[in-house]
């Protein structure tokens, strides 16, 4: 039975007053900046992308005009899996869950009239991350913008694909190698860019608990860092550009405590394990997204309240960037109306609640401090078990990490089915009402249009220069060289995303 209240005696195993410290001070439990949002609000970065590059470009302009402060690109499944829109396996998926990008020309349309030197852009892309960032760099270059001033994030987290999301292409080890290629390239060439956003969000969406989300994410981060160090990169050279991406669920206080515990654990990992010698390198920087798995198709308007609660938990937890889901996402692609409500949810918290004026306003509450400590201990326990089994990559290959998520997901679902976990409109206060149809639909004609566009693109290029660029890429990959410069040169020769991916498949194979 849960305790009804907590007292000082409940916290006698540690003195929470000495653990708190001031905001902006190690281990950053209360926030990574002394003034937090009182000095600067979090970035309001709504995730968007559907249909064609032109349609998505129009949505971006709408969001920016409504007050959004950063872009976040959703790519469709073919783009994520390295398939051009004209590939037979792309049929039925072009533009469905994100924007369709196959060529440099598509990317140019996507960001038409958007000032890349003034707007930061996040791209949720992993297996094909070097290709998409290469496209972004080249369209900036065409507009006279040097890559050194570009700001944004590319997710580039392949390990979580094997655990939770499934959008992998190459085997585990080559996938990590390609990820670190991008780390190395960005450190040298795109200094303001976050070259990885290590994702717990998808792990949480797959069914992990709060502590599992943090533990598996940080274990993956350790694997990436060790790989980067083995390549000769210096911890102080790349650590400021490591970022994270977490989900936020309905258990309000648990989520606030999760973010506080995560900051503390990450600071210790960087200081004690990797010997980062500058305090700013110890700060956990993360984007948060409200969890789509908590949304219901039944009574979708209820999702507006769910999203608001989750967004407030993220803000009280100290996020640096936030996406709020739209209320109709359990039904289909979000409509323009629902997207605006989602953005307004953040703006209401930011400008009307006055919560941002206080740093860590819940800090010092007995229950929150106890919960923060409990999540910290559970997270460290899971991480030790992963370490004892050989680390994140070994636990992915053995299936251990995935089994943790599956067991947790099964337990959650059984709780919903038994009614011990209440979900309004699903297993409590149910009404026999018809689920509405989605307002926004992707036109089925898009596939035919995309095939024509790609055929035109392929028909207007130097075949010899293209073959030479792809051959150089394959040669570099075979010699274990950094592939990013060669990918960019292939893009200059008008290679498509699918052609570059196929070239790398010839060297690395595919994950079975």
What does this 3D model show about the protein?
The protein is an alpha/beta fold. It has 2 domains: 8-418, Methylmalonyl-CoA mutase (TIM Barrel); 462-508, no CATH class. It has helices at residues 16-20, 53-65, 77-80, 104-110, 129-142, 159-165, 172-189, 201-205, 210-230, 235-238, 252-273, 302-317, 336-351, 366-388, 392-398, 400-418, 446-458, 463-478, 484-492, 497-508; strands spanning 43-48, 70-74, 121-124, 152-154, 193-194, 196-199, 242-248, 286-290, 321-323. A 9-stranded parallel β-sheet has the order 5-4-3-2-1-9-8-7-6. Helix 2 runs parallel beside helix 4 (104-110). The two termini are 45 Å apart.
What are the main properties of this structure?
512 residues; nine-stranded parallel β-sheet; TIM Barrel; 9 strands; alpha/beta
Q: List segments where confidence is low: pLDDT < 50 over at least 5 consecutive residues.
A: none
Strand order of the largest sheet: 5-4-3-2-1-9-8-7-6
Q: End-to-end span in angstroms?
A: 45 Å
The value of Rg in angstroms is 23 Å
Work out the strand percent: 5-15%
What sort of overall outline do the alpha carbons produce when their principal axes are compared?
Answer: globular
